[in-house]
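Provenance and format

Records in this collection were gathered into a single text stream. Each protein contributes a sequence line and a token line. The two records reproduced below are adjacent in the stream.
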Amino acid sequence: MKLSVGLKVANTLSLTPQLQQAIKLLQLSSLELEQEIQNQLDSNPLLEAIDDDFKETSSANDHDTDQSSHEEYNQNELIPDDLPVDTDWDEIYTHQPTALATPEYEEREDNRSGTESLSDHLLWQINLLHLSKIEQMIAYCIVDALDERGYLDCEIEEILTAAQHLLTQAGIEEELELAEVVVVLKYIQRLDPVGVSCRNLVECLSIQLETYHQNLQLKANAHALLAHADLLMANDINRLMKQTKLSLEQLKHAMTLLKSFDPAPGAQFQSKEQEYQTPDVILQKKNDRWHVFLNPDILPKLRVNPYYAGLIKRADQSDDNQYLKNQMLEAKNFIKSIDERHKTLLKVATCIVEHQRDFFEIGPEGMKPLVLRDVADEVELHESTVSRVTTNKYILTPRGLFELKYFFSSHVGTATGGECSSTAIRAMIKKLIAAENSKKPLSDNTIAKMLQEEGIDVARRTVAKYRESLNIPSSSDRKILI
């Protein structure tokens, strides 16, 4: 083997720390960006946030400020540790009022309300019942086995096993029977909300029906419907009338009564926490023109600390001076990366608004097909950059709050050779179904033909896929005869 020395030329892409930081900031959401800025403020002494009432001063004033800061710093070094005071502790401390005195602050009742859970609501009622200790343990096991809808999420035999285990741990030597669990279960099913801890929908509706006493004949008709629950779920009206011997009018009233009951009694106790999103971009229409601008509430106000920057000496190579230089460079790069992030975000958002102008004018039916490459070519960025900019970024429009990625959609060909957005097709399908006759709902094949009459070439299976994505049931499930 012979050793040799040679030259080789190759092109490689290396990401500088500044470029890596810019890419990282580009894909952060507004909340994550706020956290990242706070981390930088905590770690870099030369980076500081500017108050809202801060105004830029001239360079001469900055120089005077730096000089006065140096003088204050030198004076602070001469201040002794122990300073004389002209007040005593008793002159500062405020004594608490006595019971006979008027309180300093008016005592008010705490009216803050919290969402009560289903288990807490049931246990509060169970503790008011005259149950034995054994029955209470069985009730606790039943409540613990309820799901978010309020239904029993296990078999009664499992409740029996869990209650027997609790009794053994409590040192109570008694053999439970299945009938005891059933008795306690019936107690709980009639607590508020009525129908909780049922095992299926039919049992839940039946227990709620027992509390109805206004029209006994209507109640009997509703019981007859529940006896044929399979036909009721399938909406087979003709067979229901034949099996129950009820007229169409009687059947209609009985079904209306059953629909008035709550199919999920425990759902009302679920905490409904809303997730709020802060818009990054705001769209407004002024003088028949759409204007896009960044949300001023999320724009960070940062600058390099002038005092620490004034301490840097150009020719000094000491460790302290070198540290200040490095921190100032990082602060400037961070501010520049933040600025580039917002410029890129505004550029991409403006491009999207220009493409989807019809959406903001007439609604989802005006959505145009748009992909990442279209925006990337127009704003002269890479597709991956556009993807980072539109991820977890929101725009506030007169039609609501949307993620920027919402405006990208695939396309379907039209009869004229053009393209139609899949979002617009979904909006058309939803509009057609909303206007259909409930007794003769439109099938997927019929909807496909109606869209083809509008010049949109779409297959039946595509209509079915779009309909399912809108959570719209099939035509047979939408059919209502009464």
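Adjacent record:
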Amino acid sequence: MSVHATPRQRAYLVCAILMSTFMVAVESTIVATAMPSIVGRFGGFDHYSWVFSSFLLAQTSTTVIYGKLADIFGRKPVLIAGIALFLVGSLLCGLAWSMTALVAFRLLQGIGAGAIQPITITLVGDLYRLEERGKVQGLVATVWAASAVVGPLVGGVLVDYVSWVWVFWMNLPIGLFAMAGFWLFLREQVEPRQSPIDYLGAALLSVAIGALLILISETDGSAGQIGLAGAVFLLSSLAFVWQERRAREPIVSFALWRRKLLAACNLTALLAGVLLIGLTALLPLHVQGVLGRSPIVAGLALTMLTLGWPLAVALSPRLFRAFGVRNALRYVSLMLPIGAGLMLLLGPGASPVLAGFASFLVGIGMGIASFTCIVLIQESVEWSMRGSATASNIFARSLGCVLGATVAGAILNIGLARYAAPDVAERLHAVLNQPAGLAGLAADPAAVLVFDQALHLAFTGLFVVALITAAATWFIPADLSARGRPAEASPALGE
């Protein structure tokens, strides 16, 4: 099984990959800008968080499933089907008549989005040799970074001057062009495989992941709701393990996940996801609420992470050649705790430049860790397992992001409860709930001090996660043989 493409065809396919990546990456930030207008139109504020959660639930729970399907049927049909589902969901989101309908259509969007990221990254591994892959992965990372920056701006312009529906409908031409690119230029040679689809395993996995994400994200729910989600998660997980052990072609190969390389890389991805979303959530709060800077300055500080990430990815092949994969991964990953440690120096009188520099260093560490893990995983398995292996790493990072959002919020709330006297806590929550939000915090020095202490506690937690993430990279067998495969790889990898 293999993918064949001329240099010109590869150029067109990279364009299709970048368009697909942009379409999914921009979705979260652009929708966030439009949500106040949507809620004002439909009402139903109690469904607000589910507009985001439904997309995340579907995307995360289907990632591993699509990776397996891509290995069985080939990248092309599965990717095109995923994009088509995403576009149908986008079209219906613009036609939604209520918040309930919007949540349902966002779920459909997420089901399609689950195919796009893992399969496009797998395609990069199919199309390019190891020494060429850094440049393309750097382009993909740059698209993700640009999406985070331009998403809110584009969303604001569309809502103010056109209509909120175009927040979703702008995906339609982009997605259609991407589909055309894959349809016309992606040529696969797929050996026929009589592989039964593990539909029951896929369903149980989706239920288990959905219950887990509900359990960790709905911490303010009633005891009954939390207990029900926990019970569903436990029972569906046990049933999933039982099903996968007996299935002839399991949707998740436990033998694959037990390999030292994949286990170490996926653990690193999980921890990196926790760190990434924690930094994304907390750093803007500090820059605006404690340093008293504008949202633009906060955005620029966080944007430094999205500059460091693609820079590290683009430079990775050179670092591999100069220092070896093992040394490049281990020592550049130290930028994670160094950057997170600099955030502990932030205080009421600190400069936002320090916040930006710390963010940039974390981005460097994130870039080298994520790219190296993907490369090692893809080079350790044959074509017929590359989709599943790549999807497992993306799934681990996505799950880490969900866990990180919950953990960061929990630590911040613990800090507020610990450091704030009752009257200060009441004033702090009152200020944060006003339209001015963080901009009005500077008028209350006592509240600023408490907010700084609570954020400092959260940054300490992120520093610990960064240390563990950097340590996890030392357990990755990162030596590549002359043939470009990790040293632990063997001819019988599929067995």
